[in-house]
Amino acid sequence: MSVNRRDIVGHLESNGFYFCREGGNHTIYFNGYLMIPLKRHSHFDNITANRICRQAKLKEIF
To answer: Which fold is adopted by the domain 2-55?
Structure first.
């Protein structure tokens, strides 16, 4: 099963992360002390989506 990128972005933004900048192949989200790089794919598999949540120290919901 796959997860839409906008779902991951929504989860990050609802937990205090905001758009910081565009990198070469990633979009960077920041919450004051953690920077989370997010690839510009339209869909992610569940394992990758949950790893992004873990990296952001958020609950894994996917």
So the answer is: Metal Transport, Frataxin; Chain A (3.30.920)
